[in-house]
Amino acid sequence: MEIRLVLPGPGPAAQDAGSLCARLTSLYEDGAPAVECDVGAVTTPDLGTVEVLARLRLAAAGRPLRITGARPPLRALLHLVGLVELLGEPEEREPPGGVEEGVQAGDLPP
Fold this sequence. Notes:
By secondary structure, the chain is of the alpha/beta class. 33% of the residues lie in helices and 13% in strands.
């Protein structure tokens, strides 16, 4: 059973991180096997929102924390700062130049 932690809208500020992390820690200490962090109310995300999410991930200390309800502006911001993995999505990266993703038998060297 997942327990929900709802982030306030229109967006949590960096100074909210301490109380939200304390709430998350309390949920785990009270026996929550996993926590769903609902960010659906976040309509104007900023770097304070990013800090809150990053600190929540750290406070989870490896325990299951799933972030749900992210709207396009928050997704875009997390992609921009390289923290899209907070949403459980892999970051899309291009392979380094000159590196082949796969080699087939009989391929000629470049």
